[in-house]
Amino acid sequence: MPRKKAAEEPKELPPNDHRALGQALDLFSFHEIAPGAPFWHHKGMIVFRELERYARRVNDENGYQEISTPILVKKEVFEKSGHWDFYRDNMFWFTNPRDKKETLVVKPMNCPESTYLYNSDVRSYKDLPLRLAEIGRLNRNELSGTLGGLFRVRQITMDDAHIFVRPDQVEDEIATVVKIIEEFYGSFGFTPRYVLATRPKKALGAKKVWDVAEHALEQALQRQKTAYTIDKGEGAFYGPKIEVHMEDSQGRDWQMGTAQLDLVMLPKQFDLSYIDEAGNKKMPWVIHRAIFGSFERFIGILLEHFSGALPYWLAPVQARILTINEKVADYAKEVEQELTKNNIRVELDARNESLGKKIREAEMQKIPYLLVVGEKEKSARSVNVRERGKAETQTMQPEEFLQKSVVSSL
Description:
By secondary structure, this protein is an alpha+beta fold. It is 33% helix and 24% strand. The chain contains 13 helices and 20 strands. An 8-stranded mixed beta sheet has the order 3-7-8-15-12-11-9-10, with helices on both faces. A 5-stranded mixed beta sheet has the order 17-16-18-19-20, sandwiched between helices. Strand 19 (383-387) and strand 20 form a beta hairpin.
């Protein structure tokens, strides 16, 4: 949630606004037929897919199991979780036209659904922590006046995870989650701030339970030596949370990733249990975790942070080959094919335009590497490489450039 009310989109956008960058770089667009839902263009989907790949790699390295749950769910699920009472106005829901007794909800969050996978088997204390991750599309009925670019949307892609733990595992697991989040944001050069949001006025569960949960989150932050502030009364209705915050180019504050500790909603409402060492049934605690928070919002922050000049591994076009004249078109095509074969996202600009114009257009597209090919390069079987942001150029063989691009990858 932004701490400042999102304004309506201005007619003229600042050049570093993510909406202007998204349009200039051909990444996404918005259309009236789908308020608050971006239309992702091909180049935008490349960025999206690379971030998904990174998120999955992080999950795989940290012992998460990927799952997928249905997009349409009966309202009874959300009545049981408490969302129907606390969150109904933010949901899209409808009566089944073929069965008037059935009310279906377009999934606004992944947490209640994860419990059905947990309860699909008998769990032992040895099975915990069980880390279930889901990258899923969600839909939330945000007020039309609050919608703004990728920062406030109705269709959201979340990198959720729900970690089912024994009480004695909570502090270690939360500390690990905080470490993952710090390393993840650090890999982009971000310096987020952390907020501990505590019990709101309307909340499920007794205060003493909340005290335990809040203490566990504080201890985890302190163990990681992570600076944080406390936001009293801003926790979720079912548990306190650690929030990751970033500012956009206009100085507005946005919540990104989260780590929430739930001792009430999922464990109690959905009758979760595991068998302890003595053979007794015990209730697990649940950590709700998101690193991106929202892919859409993260991409918006990312575009503004880099002013559209995305890191090499994320750039939709990583290299563009520029020909000086038609005589070298055949060799330029060979270079393009070689780079494509080695998984470089490359474009060939063989138009009958001046080299200066081609360079200017490529620079406006924030392409990391420009490979100029003239008759001299054709004869030497080389390319003249211009790296984004650098004035000097370097002549090298295509094979050398491939090695250079590997170093630039994440």
